[in-house]
Structure formats: structure tokens, C-alpha cells
Amino acid sequence: MSRLAKNKLLAFAIVLVALQVILALGAPWFAPYDPMAQSIARRLKGPTVLNWLGTDQLGRDVLTRILYGYRTSLIACVLAVGVALLAGGTLGLMAAYYRGWLDRIIMRVMDVLFAFPVMLLAIGIIAVLGPHTYSAAAAIAVVYTPIFARLLRGPALVLCESEYVAGAKAIGASDKRIIFLHILPNLASVILVQTSLLLSAAILVEASLSFLGLGTQPPTPSLGLMLSEGRNFLQLSPWSAIFAGFAILFLSFGFNLLGDALRDTLDPRLRGQS
Amino acid sequence: MSRILLSRLIDLVVVLFGVSIIVFLMIRLIPGDAVAIMLGANTEITPERMAELNSRVGLDKPIVQQYLVWAGAALRGDFGTSLWTGRPVATEIITNLWPTLELTFLSLLIGAVLAVPVGCWMAQTRGSGMDVAMRIGAIAGLTIPSFWLGIVLILLFSAFVPGFSSLGYVPFSEDPFGNLQRMLLPSIALALPILANLSRLVRSAMLDALGQDYVRTARAKGLSERTVVYKHALRNALIPFLTSVGIMTGYLLGGAIVVEQVFAIPGLGRLILGAIAERNYPLIQATILVVTAGFVLVNFVVDFLYIVVDPRVRA
Amino acid sequence: MFRSVLRGAIGAGVMMAAMASASAQVLEIGLDNGPTGLDPHLITAFPSFMVVNGNIYEGLTAVDKDLKIIPGLAESWNVSTDGKTYTFKLRSGVKFHDGTDMTAEDVVSTIRRVQSKDIASPLASRLSAIDSAKAVDPQTVELTLKEPSAPLLSSLATIAIVPSEVETNKDILQKTPVGTGPFKFQEWQPNGFILLAKNDAYWQKGAPKLSGLKFNIVPESATRQVGLVNGQYALLPNIDAATALQLKGKPSVKLGETLDLAYMLIGMNVSKAPFDNPKVREAVNYAINRQEIVDAALFGAGVPGGPLSPALKSWALDVKEFPCYKPDPAKAQALLKEAGVAMPVTVTMNVLPRQDVKDIAQVVQEQLNKAGFKVELKNQEQGQFIQDWRNSNFDLFASINAGSPDPDEYFYRTFRTGGSTNVFKYSNPEIDQLLDKARTLSDQAARKTAYDQVQKTLACTGPVAHLTYGTLFSAMRDKLQGYDVMPNRSLSTLKNASY
Description:
CATH architecture of the largest domain in chain B: Orthogonal Bundle
Shape of chain B: globular
Largest sheet of chain B: none
CATH superfamily of the largest domain in chain B: MetI-like
Strand content of chain C: 15-25%
Radius of gyration of chain C: 24 Å
Helix content of chain B: over 70%
Largest interface: B-C, 53 and 55 residues
Number of strands of chain C: 18
Structural class of chain C: alpha+beta
Strand content of chain B: under 5%
Oligomer: heterotrimer
């Protein structure tokens, strides 16, 4: 693909993600209605002038709830992936830097966590914490921690053995200085790409969990929950389920495209690995 | 080679041991105990009967002892009996295992078989405007929620193909046709992301192969370019394909949990969700352990094949 | 290529579906949840009840679709003049599914089983009036009561007669039920289906007409609907209004309906602030707009209801008799002020995980929040909900409850001080006295006077805000004949159905 096309794709991905993030964070200002306001007379309607995307089973505005749903999903997933990055990144770097028994213990524990299928471990964790948005976020964070740890340990290991880091050690730089100044910046592109891709996946996991009734709970608006509630009324009005499905797709799609385009731009060697 | 295999095997055992401890602890931490749920709205219960039920579930002993008793029996292949149906847990798992295995296998098959032509086609469109469109399409395929796709498929089929039995499960041995008919839609719902993923692998392997020396050599030797490219490209695609099988199995097991719910398929996902809801400890423990062990084993075999296929890793 | 294979597959599928419906006599039923056990004396959940009641098991008496008592395994009975001795004449020629005869001895051991502390049956309180049971001869049973009990005949309809050899066995019937009913247990695949086969030795001539019942467990509502429309399932019993509305008018599908005995409720914990104060409980009732709940959650298919279901025509008071049933948020706020609680009154509401209950909880939350409350919903997982309910660990809860054909069955265990399901810790000497008296009265008018008073007191300041009684629907294929929807959700009329 030409350089120009690559940049265009990246720009498109950035615009797509930024648009959705702005809509989500600005939900209280952009949304035409109160997300909780019920209106039984106007329920289960298709798109109208008053409700652009129709109404749900309690007559709440679907567009409003999708905007707030974006907010719930985004906050939960950013929080979850952020915690996973922090925890997994720290563990992975520590394992690579100090090697020896610490490395072995950390990576064994990570292997064990990594051994679980993602949804299975998430469901187990939620069973312990009780169904809630934050339980889903916590579950996602735990599930993604080993992914970051394993991902960062490899390249960090190579860096640690490089002459460059050996040189820094030789002139007496502190561990902290070496990690933050010499190792982390070199991992930035890997981190950026993977965070974006995992955010995309996390949005689907959060939606699946809410769909199963294990994530966000009513009356809080959430995309997976809207789909789950709307599916009970498909023959009466499929709109809220259809639009919620599209919203999940767009959000997850945006981050995946962003990750993909970033990978192309930052590190063409990684192309084709997913 | 055998040394690598041995050390991998030891890793495998360590991981499974860790998994069993986590599963066991997690289940003890779930609030709301089995006995309370077994009783439901029954409030006539006497304290003695409550204690008796507790001891039957094994909740009255210290946790380390509980674990040792369970792990000891599990090593001998005895996972206990389901608290509700009283049938051996192993039987329950085997009954529910087939639908899930079939679903995962068919999805993988559909995805892999279609990925070859789609990927080759994608490689041919390289550089045109179609290239970008295909790429966006592939990403959309990766991120489409499978449960949503499942519902949409059910509705479309019910509207346009009345009489198509798309729900539930009949064993292949009883009614092969009915079995495949019911498996078609859920497999498609799960296969789409696999197709998207694999076709991208095929595409980049094709592009790689086209630029390789041996293709040029082959061309120079006057061999059919087509044969050479396909042969080498597909072999090249095999390695990333193997690596991603492990990841895809994990995805499929997770996806199956939700899709089984939508299509009323009595598989492992439904078994686990049901077992958690009713705090059926022996059943949850064994099911999560078995599924995870299966997942780990798949990854183990993949690792091993990887070594066989790609000699560079051996060094 | 792919397309033609698909078309072939579809064609063959249509053909097979047609063949199947022509020859099959096993009725395919779609249930939303699987049963957790099949012991008729231990189960408490709807799905278990629907599978066993009247299909696998029968009681001495039975109820018809209008909840009137009719003979069951007893063909007739006599009550002594002091109301303390009941003599039942058993039907002859009744056999259990294992081939043994059902005799008076089995009835006596069944009653002992339900009353046994060791079995700990949730039905025990329904038989608390029985002092002793005696087999006079193989066809005659005599029950001696401690005191007269008006609801006994109605209670006996829910006590399944089981073989005497299982009297002390707590496990066997959960998995392999053996009864006298028109269908016998054949196979249970958890999460898959329960299959019952026709009982060829059934006592009623010509019944059952179906060769079996297959209860398919299908958690997704949309999936069940599609299954009924394309003929894969023949019956979706006891569905809610939203599902019924979506199936209305579909080709070859018809709806049956009746008024539900089960009701939606908000439970209040009176053992702690703020609901220990009757004024706060009254405020809740004024704050709730029941008609709006019917419209919102039940799609208009239902009625606002008091402590007794309007389906109990001879007992239930008209809701117009309860002043607090007229929605009045201002009055609610005034009551809260009088009660001296700090506004907004911040409370948590535990919510049973069912779609209809979740919807109702959201509507009630909005209504209460407009009247001086601040309600937070706590959506729980089933197990946690039940445990909190059992341990009285809640401020408010939203739930659905099965009702009973006789007022005593519900009132006594729920509102009597120390009653077995009085998780609200409600205690009112006036109610206790009325309930104690009413269950011994044999005069219908006198009983009604007592229960009228109970209903009036409970409606506004009781620990339960009764919300609505829904219309109970069943959706079925046109061809299904002879099945009636029962207010108590029993599927016992299937024995006379044909397909």
C-alpha cells in the first residue's frame, strides 16, 4: 500500500475514534434527552423526528442511551485496558530487567492466567464480584494483564541485552532511569498498537458480558445491555437492538482499524501478525 | 527436540496445577452458597438439615483439605457428582462437550476453507481501491459481535426461509442432516471473525511469496508461476496460521458461550453459566478445568507443530 | 455451488419439518429455564412445577382452570361435622409408573414425608393442620386434624402422592421421579431437554392423547418465538405480555390467556429504618402508580392488584377499597414528612434477575424518586438474591411470587409473626389474630369478613406493596387442542390435549 493510502487510513481511523470518544465524553451535552426519562406512550417506536433512532421498551430515547452507552463502555474498557497495561507492563518489564527467579515466578503466574479462555475467566471473576460495570472492567483487566506482560517481556529482554542498555548500566544509571529513559520509549510503538487492538477486543468482551446479564446493569445505559434488552422485543421494534449492535461494531471497529493502521505506520515489520 | 518437548510438558503440568488452584479458590469466593440455592425459596429448613447439606457439598471442611480431596479424586478421573442431577460430573461434561466441539470445529473449518480463496483474491486486488475496502471489510468482520450476528441470522432465516430448523441440537449420529442444519447458522456467526483473520494471513503470505527469490527463480526456470506461488504462499501461511489457531480456539470457546445461549445449543458454555447460577461447585470446577486444559493442550500441540514446521525455532 | 447446497439443505429441511409434524405425537414445548430438580416435595421454582405438576404427579384433589377443587386421586371425600376428620375414598386401578398399585399406605407415607423435618419440604406448612393420617383400608385414607382447616382441600391439590418406599429418600425423586400422572419420566439432559413419555396405564380412559412431552430449554425469548413460528415448538407455556404481543397474529399460532395468580411485588424490610415506620410504607404505596406499571411493563395486559389476585373472585377485594392505591406523590411526601425521615429517603432495591421484574423495578424506581425517595437498583444474580431474601438482607426488593388458590396459604406463611416466608419480619397482633381465626372457620362468609380486614390492613401499611397481576399467556400452534392456560401455571390440562 502506498504511503499516502496508509496515512489516509490512519487519519480515517483517528477521526473515527476521536468522533466516538467526543460523542461519549460529551454525552450529557449532545444527548437530546435524559437517558432515564421514560415515556410509555412513545415506546418501541422506530426512528422519528423526535427520536432519531427510535425508543426502547420503556420509551427512552435510543440515541441518548447509545451516547451514554458509549460512555459506559469506553470508560469501563479504557479503565480495564489501562490497568492491564500498567500491571502487565510493570510485571513484564520487571521480569525482563531482573531475570532470574523473579522472572520465572512472574511469567509462570502470567502463563496460568493466560491459559484461561478470556470469556471463561471473565465470567468466573464476575461470579465472585457480582454483576456490575466495574466487575466487568476488573475481569477484563485481569484477563489482559498477562497479554501485556508477555508482549512486553520479549522486546524488553532484547533491549536489556543490547549494548545500549549495558552502556547505561556501566556509567551507573539507576534501574529506574534505565527503564523509563532507555527501555520504555523503545517499546512505545508496540504498546500503542497493542493497546488499541485490545481496546477493540475489550469492547466486544464488555458487550458480551452485558449481553449475558453479567456486566452493566439497568437502568445504567450500556450498549451490550441495550442489545440484550432489545432482543426481547425484536418483533415489536428491532430498532434499539439493531442500533446498539451497530454502535458496538463501530466502536470496536474504530479501535481495531486504528491499531492496524498504527502498526502499518509505526512498524511495517509487524504487519500480518494479529 | 525431545528435551524441548519434555520442558514444555513440565510447563504444561505446572500451568494446569496453577489453573486448578485458581479455579478452586475462585469458586469458594463466589458469594451465595450452593446449599442456600438448592433450597430456593424453601424456608422450612431445620439447622440440622442445613448442616447435613453443607457436609454433603463438602463446605464444612478447611479449604486446603477440600482442595486436596478434590484434586486427589480429579487426578483419578473422578470429578464427583452434580449437586442437582446427581449424575457423575464427567458424564455431564461429555454430554455437553460434543455440541461445543462440533460448533468450534465447524466454525474453524468454514473460516479456514473460505479464507484461502478470499485471501488470494485480496492479494490480487493489491494496490487498487479495493485493497482498502477489503481491509476495512476484514476488520469489520473481526469486530462484529457474534451474538448480534446470530440474532440477525435467526431473524433473516425465519423471515425468508420458513421451516428451517435453526434452533437446538440433535446429535449427528441420530440425524446427520438435522444436526448440520441446526449447526449452520451458529457456525457462520462464529466463523466470520475467523474468516476475516485467516484471509488476512493468506493475503500477506501471498504477497510475501510473490516477492520471494524462489518465485523469481521459478519464473526464470519457466515453471508455472501459479503453481509455485500457491504452493509456497500456502506453506508460508501455515506458520502464522498455526500460531493463530491457539488464539482462535480461545476466541471460539468464549464466543461459543454466548452463541450457544442464542441458539439454544446445550453445550459447555450453557453448562458453565447454568452451573455458576446454581452454584454447582463440582460441576463448575470440573468444567472450567476441562475447558481450560483443552485450551492449554491445543496451544501445546500448536507450539509443538510450530517447532516441527519451522526448523529455525529449534535452534 | 454454495448457494445450491444451501438451497438443497433448506428444501430438505422444510420437507423434514413437514414429515415430523405429520407423524410426531410428542409435544415439543419451549421453556425459558430448566428445572433444578424434580422432587415434587422439594421444588420451589416455576420450571420444575410446570414439568411435574399434573403431568408426572397428582394429588388427592386437583384444581380446574377456574381454580375450583375437583377430585384427583381421591374420587370422593367426607368431612366430619366438627371439621376435624377427613375421609378420602381413593380411585381404584391407579398405578405408579413403576407398575405398583397406588394405595392408602402411599398416601399416608406421602403426608409423613412432607411433614418430616428431615425432608424439610417447603410444602410442610400447608399440612400443618394435619395431626395424623391413617390407612383405613387400601382404598380409604382418614386424616385427623388438630383443628378445622378451611384451606386443606386446596392445599392437598399441591401435595403429590409418591410411592411409600421413597418416604425417607431425599435424592431419588430429584432425578428420577415416579408418580401416577399421565406422563412418565424418560430422560433429562440438563440445559437440553426433559422428555416425558405417555403413561399407558393411566387411570383416566382415553388420556393422555399425546405420546409424550418434550420440554426444550431455550433461554432466549427471540429464539423461542422463532421456534414456535417455524413449527419447531408447539407450545410456549406461561409467557409474558411482550412475548405474546409479538406472536399475536403470526400464521398458525394462537394465544390462550387467563389472569395470573402470580404477582409482582415490592418487599419492604420492616425490621429496620426506614420501613419499620408504617407511614413510610404507606408513602411507598401512594408513590407507586400501578396503572402505569401495567402499561409499561405488562403492555397493558394485566390489572393493578391488592394482596389477593383478582383471579380469586370469591376472596379478592376491589382495589378501589384501598385509598393508597390512588397515586399521589404529594401525599407520599407529606407522609414521609410526618414520619420524620430525612428526605430524600435513600434506599437500595434488590432486583430478581428476570426481564419483566427488571423493567418493573426501573419504572418503580422512577416513581419513587419523584415522591421523596432516592432508590438505587441492585441487580443481583439469582443465587445472591435468594440468599439476601432468605436472610432478610435488603431494604426493598422487587420480585414475582406465585400465588395460591386459598388466601390462607399465602397470608399465613408470609404475614403471620414468625411465618415461614415472612422475611420482612412483619409482626402485627391484629393480623395474627385474624389469620389464626380465619383458617379454622368453615363458614365462607365469616372467613371472607376476616380476610377482607386482612387485605385492607396489608394493602397500605403491610410489608409488601402488591403491584400488578398480569395476564398469563400461552402461545401454541393452531393444531394444539384441549390445552387450557391455568392461573397457577400448571400444565395439567395437557393430559386432555391433542396435537
